[in-house]
Amino acid sequence: MTDWKTLAVRALRDLDGASKMVPGAKLRQQMALLGEESGFDVAGHVKRSGKQFSELVAQVEGISIRKRTGSDMLVGLSGAKTPEEPPRPEERHEPAEGLRSDVFQAFTRITPVPFSYLPGSDRFVPQDQAKGQSIEVPPSTLGEAIEDRRRFVDTLDTDRRKPFLDALQASTSPLAEFRKVVAEQGSGHQWARALTEAVGTRVRSWATRNGVIPRDDWFRRERSSASLSAHAALARLAPYLTADEIRGLHVPFRAVEALLKDSKR
Could you tell me which of 42, 58, 24 has the C-alpha nearest to residue 174? Predict the structure, then answer.
């Protein structure tokens, strides 16, 4: 039966990892494919070990690893060269379309310092800034972020998926490359909604495990009135209209002005 070392080395050779280092996510995907053929459960092996995938790979003799802050690690056989990387764009975070900013960052930001929740002030802050009673938030990982994006790609029409998958599988900076493809394909709002839903699910699961009651404010929608659809805008305008105005389907400037003023508070 194939063992971990044999599988890792074989996967790297298939990916030309003897001459050029490859992203860790790409290696894991190739190992999973080869494992299915030989009856070796890669995901199960990692889970049973109680260690990270990167730790297990690092233990294999003849394999070199280069870790990078905010990006996937690079892996190769001894002597493999590091691929040239394009200049990194200014770091940005995805729009928190339906989540409060600190909540979104706590459950998505990949950083050496995890976040903690302060029940007393209802804020999520970096752990080294937490004072008093606090509840730790599990650190976000690149693998988790990539999985969010894979699930989103699965919802797209088959003929639209390739550039998104290429960004995740072939790039040394998969998150930045994925963001670029999202912009090129005009999928920003669609992706923002999917990410909000994925992160919101994690937030609620974390709250349940830690006995925390989620607050409505965590999931507020931070959108300007200019971005509302016609139907949504009309629904929000209703409280500012009189009964007669509603019956006549008449939207006076007074109501629009009141809505805009209220949105800025």
Answer: 24
- The reported pLDDT for the residue numbered 123 is 93
In angstroms, what CA-CA distances link 163 with 77, 170, 190, 217, 224?
A: 28, 10, 16, 36, 31
Beta-strand relationship, 22-23 and 71-77: antiparallel
Per-residue pLDDT tens digits for 188-208: 889 998 999 999 999 999 999
Using alpha carbons, select from 58, 92, 72, 218 the residue that is nearest to residue 144: 72
Instruction: Tell me the C-alpha distance between 61 and 195, whole Å.
Output: 38
d(CA 104, CA 108): 6
Say what the pLDDT of residue 80 is: 86
Does the pLDDT at position 223 exceed 60? no
Pairing relationship of beta strands 135-136 and 123-126 according to DSSP bridges: unpaired
Give the C-alpha separation, 13 to 219, whole Å: 46
pLDDT in tens, 71-95: 678 899 988 888 765 444 434 445 4
> Nearest Cα to 97, choosing from 189, 181, 178?
189
Non-local CB neighbours of 30 within 8 Å, separated by 6+ positions: 11, 14, 15
CA gap 197, 213 in Å, rounded: 18
Give whole-number Cα distances, 262 to 225, 254, 259, in Å. Answer: 10, 12, 5
Alpha helices (H) along the chain: 4-14, 24-38, 42-49, 53-58, 101-106, 142-154, 162-170, 174-184, 188-209, 230-237, 243-247, 253-263
Closest Cα partner for 68 from 17, 127, 14, 112?
112
Residue 237 pLDDT > 90: no
| pLDDT for residue 39 is more than 80 | yes
Structural tokens at position 244: 């007669």
